[in-house]
């Protein structure tokens, strides 16, 4: 009668599994790498209360009251005046393309009205495409600016004096109601495309290898470029269907405004999807099995989701995390799609993200062609 448990047989099975894990270095590396990546990103990179947000100052006459107010805003930690001498036209272009989060406009007669106690006003324009970014900074505006002027004029900080001395007019641009769906739904288009396009394409070649049909593919008189296009182009059609579904739902169900040109949206989506399917093809050249392809896809997807600005404010992350976020196509696509759909940005405003996506296509295509193997070894 065979014993239910044999330590010798159990040890043999454990040794066999250990050898398999040692041979599958990719899976073992993912087991160690993913927790470490999550720990680093959530522990150091994620910040839901962004500080040092870039701002532009439009002040025709920079008197001592204006300087005191600007200094007080900078001391809050929320504002960083990267463009301290902007004109009205320059400030409009900066906030349209996302270079600044705020435009602070101080009228030319601001100093005279402060001295006379004649209800001076300042205008704060906030980029509200992401409501969570501007909320903390806007909440400190009125109190901080008023206290700064009271210290400069030497008046007593009473509620009556605050009401009479300064009015801060806040204009939330592009999303005045602060509707979260206006920010999330356009970003979801990029997230859905990234997950599906990369995963499906990454399994294209690995599926051929596992089914034993890769030899037939390699024996065909086809160049690596032809094989790559044959694997990639069908998934562009799948991506087109997904784009149509998401954009129709965004308009019909969530009422997301389509302020910009539709052709510019579709152009950005086309370049983005092309970069994704080529990335998936590159992953398939690195993987031996479909499981490895799926693991590499998720290893790419997680930091891309966290560092692109989809889930957490991009400007709330430290400088090293923002630099790392620049290497993901999703980061540039979110800037493009939100800029066109919500701000009505034109080709000149989104030229940077569009060229970045095109660069991803070129670099990933070259890497995929270099990685393609003509043999199964």
Automatic annotation (TrEMBL):
It is found in: Cell inner membrane; Cell membrane. Keywords: Cell membrane, Membrane, Transmembrane, Transmembrane helix, Transport. Coiled coil: none annotated. The chain crosses the membrane at residues 28-46, 232-254, 260-284, 296-314, 350-370. The keyword Cell membrane applies. One of its GO terms (cellular component) is ATP-binding cassette (ABC) transporter complex. GO terms for molecular function: ABC-type transporter activity. It is a multi-pass membrane protein. Pfam families: ABC2_membrane_3. Belongs to the ABC-2 integral membrane protein family. This is Transport permease protein. It comes from Pseudooceanicola albus.
